[in-house]
């Protein structure tokens, strides 16, 4: 069977800061990394491959430098990697992204013997956009069932059994047949680190295959900006409050003054 | 849309690169170059000192539709054990404002098995119409059934705005419906407004882990779909209203399902309910130790408040994870939020800045928490909190 894993290169958002003096973004030196959830998706694919004959294929859409995260995927043990890159894909929202990814998957499946028995795995969301929308939209493009927010997975003969988290007090065990698409939570596993020989292989024996609009032959109205129904109108740094009261004095005075204010506000 | 750099004007100063969150521009050979990552947000235009950047809006070449056929605001509910998720009522509160501005009806949609008795009570939250899709199988949530039934309903009625709670359930079916309808969908919104000229919904949401906010539009398609973060908007005051109730019996069959629910595990319900707490007392790194946290607990106790904390307090094991507030924890909006020893990283602020009154106690006068606080106390919480506890006890005794 084929297992497709979609990965995304993202900025390490934990390191994105706002300069408090100028109220501007400090983005110097912020490294690009593989979206952390995607490592869990790769790990799951590789675990399945240990039990069953499978080919694990990583796919990413992005600028040419996104091939770095695909090399990392190859180093972890993924068999093949495809980068979808083209100026025509630029400005894509989740609708256009899921369409473009679906073309690559369909293309690869067309040349495969077992067209029906496949899995698509994604991280539950990317840490830069935090939308988690590409998974369900990709499942809809491929017309296959989706199970999102998966924290446990088991592959039985012809079906999968997974645990999906709805909320703290509710976990649902779901069965589905293949093909299917899963989005996974971090709880599902601990991603492996690339081994030294894995890294050597990723750069010597394996390659990142580039697919552009020429190869994918998309409907031009469904890619890039034209395929995107949402538009970023503005990006801004969250506003801060100005009209505040600083309470000063001895500890007793502070406590009394605060309580007086809170009573006036009808809180106490 | 296309973006151009005028090479003759560009000085290669790099302001655009510094202010671009998408890595959509680079400096190569002292000139700015736009990359594939560009999202056309225009942030670089505002900071270019020589006006060398130009965005031209071209005619939209995607699939076009007649926007004027679409009218009305919808809220889609989710439920668990026959109880509607509170975010649905919060969305009715916001939805009513949007519907009023647009001069259209507000519709509440429920897919369920056993809500007949609750419809009158739900109408008190102010919808003009309730559409109740009824089928025994809808006792539980199934992706494919929600997508099928809702897509039919949307195609038939053509609402212009659809609001859905940004819960794991809402975030599961909303994108799939959006794809089937080729509709724009914005995830996890925390702000919603109407642009009166275009009737566009301005959808604001945190991005980059909450460091930045983005406002998203869906100018060329309808419906405009948004999932909305729970705990941001207020449930409306209940009132009597003549709500039209439309019940649709649906005949789903078990064999229609592409996936099957084997078992629903009902874990012990958490008694902590930060989202609905009226008062929250929260501690941060400044509390200093697990031992010291008892003082924060005592303050919460005398106020009848819930206890919360920043991420670091959970990581240090001073506090249970259920009590974490912020981007990766709960989003809360109590009447009173007292932040003790919390510096106020943006990831924490996004989870509590909608609180009605914020009190910050911190040693560092430059701590960002003071930027959102209504009352700021600059000092040592270990000295102030015990005095405050005594003062509150005194007031409570007088009452």
Features:
heterodimer, A: 268 residues, 9-stranded mixed β-sheet, globular, B: 399 residues, alpha/beta, 7-stranded parallel β-sheet, 5-stranded parallel β-sheet, 11 helices, 26% helix
Task: Give a written overview of the molecule.
The complex is a heterodimer of chains A (268) and B (399). Chain A is α/β, with parallel strands linked by helices and 268 residues long. Chain A has helices at 36-51, 67-76, 94-110, 134-142, 196-204, 213-216, 251-264, and strands at residues 2-6, 9-11, 17-19, 24-26, 32-34, 55-61, 80-84, 118-123, 146-155, 159-167, 170-177, 180-184, 208-211, 231-236, 245-247. Chain A has a 9-stranded mixed β-sheet with strand order 11-10-9-12-8-1-6-7-13, with helices on both faces. In chain A, strand 3 and strand 4 (24-26) form a beta hairpin. The longest helix of chain A has 17 residues, at 94-110. The model of chain A has no long low-confidence stretch (mean pLDDT 91). With 399 residues, chain B is an alpha/beta fold. Chain B has 11 helices and 22 strands. Chain B has helices at residues 15-19, 43-47, 86-102, 119-123, 143-157, 170-181, 293-303, 311-315, 346-352, 369-372, 381-398; strands spanning 2-5, 25-28, 31-34, 53-56, 73-76, 79-80, 83-84, 106-112, 129-134, 161-165, 185-189, 191-195, 200-207, 212-217, 224-228, 244-249, 259-266, 279-283, 306-309, 336-340, 357-362, 375-378. A 7-stranded parallel β-sheet of chain B has the order 11-15-10-5-8-9-16, with helices on both faces. Chain B has a 5-stranded parallel β-sheet with strand order 19-18-20-21-22. Chain B is globular. The chains are: A alpha/beta (268), B alpha/beta (399). Chains A and B meet through helix 3, helix 4, strand 9, strand 10 and strand 11 of A and helix 5, helix 6, strand 11, strand 13 and strand 14 of B. Strand 14 of chain A pairs antiparallel with strand 14 of chain B, so a sheet runs across the interface.
């Amino acid at each position: 069977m084929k297992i497709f894993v979609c990965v995304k290169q993202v900025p390490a958002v934990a390191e994105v800061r706002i300069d408090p003096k100028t109220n501007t973004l400090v983005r110097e030196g912020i490294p690009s990394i593989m979206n952390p959830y995607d490592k869990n998706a790769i790990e799951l694919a590789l675990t399945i491959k240990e039990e069953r004959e499978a080919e694990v294929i990583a796919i990413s859409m992005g600028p040419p430098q996104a091939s770095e995260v695909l090399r990392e995927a190859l180093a972890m043990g993924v068999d093949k990697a495809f980068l979808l890159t083209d100026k025509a894909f630029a400005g894509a929202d989740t609708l256009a992204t899921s369409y473009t990814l679906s073309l690559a998957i369909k293309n690869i499946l067309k040349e495969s013997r077992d067209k029906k028995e496949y899995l698509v795995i994604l991280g539950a969301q990317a840490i830069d956009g935090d939308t988690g929308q590409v998974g369900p939209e990709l499942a809809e493009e491929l017309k296959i069932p989706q199970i999102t927010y998966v924290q446990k997975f088991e592959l039985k003969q012809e079906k999968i059994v997974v645990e999906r988290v709805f909320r703290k007090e509710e976990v649902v065990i779901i069965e589905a047949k293949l093909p299917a698409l899963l989005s996974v939570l971090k709880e599902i596993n601990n991603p492996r680190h690339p081994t030294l020989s894995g890294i050597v292989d990723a750069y010597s024996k394996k390659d990142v295959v580039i697919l552009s609009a020429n190869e994918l032959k998309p409907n031009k109205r469904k890619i890039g900006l034209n395929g995107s129904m949402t538009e970023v109108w503005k990006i801004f740094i969250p506003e801060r409050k100005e009209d505040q009261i600083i309470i000063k004095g001895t500890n007793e005075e502070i406590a009394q003054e605060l309580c007086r204010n809170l009573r006036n506000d009808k809180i106490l | 849309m296309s973006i151009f750099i005028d090479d003759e004007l560009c000085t290669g100063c790099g302001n655009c690169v510094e202010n671009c969150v998408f890595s959509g521009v680079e400096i190569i050979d002292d000139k700015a170059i736009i990359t594939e990552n560009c999202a056309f947000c225009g942030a670089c235009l505002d900071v270019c000192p020589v006006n060398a950047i130009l965005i031209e809006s071209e005619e939209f070449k995607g699939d076009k539709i007649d926007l004027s056929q679409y009218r009305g605001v919808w809220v889609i509910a989710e439920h668990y054990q026959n109880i509607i998720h509170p975010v649905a009522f919060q969305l009715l509160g916001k939805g009513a404002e949007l519907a009023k501005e647009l001069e259209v009806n507000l519709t509440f949609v429920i897919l369920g098995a056993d809500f007949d008795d609750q419809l009158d009570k739900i109408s008190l939250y102010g919808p003009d119409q309730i559409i109740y899709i009824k089928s025994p199988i809808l006792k539980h949530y199934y992706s494919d059934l929600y997508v099928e039934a809702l897509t039919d309903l949307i195609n038939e009625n053509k609402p212009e705005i659809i609001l859905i709670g940004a819960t794991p359930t809402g975030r599961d079916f909303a994108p799939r419906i959006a794809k089937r309808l080729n509709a724009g969908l914005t995830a996890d919104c925390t702000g919603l407004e109407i642009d009166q000229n275009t009737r566009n919904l301005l959808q604001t949401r945190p991005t980059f882990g909450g460091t930045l906010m983005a406002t998203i539009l869906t100018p060329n398609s309808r419906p405009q779909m948004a999932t909305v973060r729970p705990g941001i908007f207020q449930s409306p005051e209940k009132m009597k209203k003549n709500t039209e109730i439309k019940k649709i019996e649906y005949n789903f069959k078990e064999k229609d399902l592409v996936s099957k629910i084997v078992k629903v595990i009902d874990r012990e319900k958490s008694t902590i309910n930060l989202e609905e707490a009226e008062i929250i007392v929260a501690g941060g790194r400044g509390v200093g130790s697990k031992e010291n946290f008892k003082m924060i607990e005592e303050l919460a106790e005398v106020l009848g408040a819930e206890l919360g904390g920043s991420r670091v307090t959970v990581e240090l094991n001073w506090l249970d994870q259920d009590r974490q507030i912020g981007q990766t924890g709960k989003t809360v909006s109590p009447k009173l939020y007292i932040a003790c020893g919390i510096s106020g990283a943006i990831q924490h602020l996004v989870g509590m800045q909608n609180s009605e009154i914020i009190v910050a106690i911190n040693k560092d006068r430059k701590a960002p928490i003071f930027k959102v606080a209504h009352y700021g106390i600059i000092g040592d919480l270990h000295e102030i909190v015990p005095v405050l506890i005594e003062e509150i006890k005194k007031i409570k005794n007088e009452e």
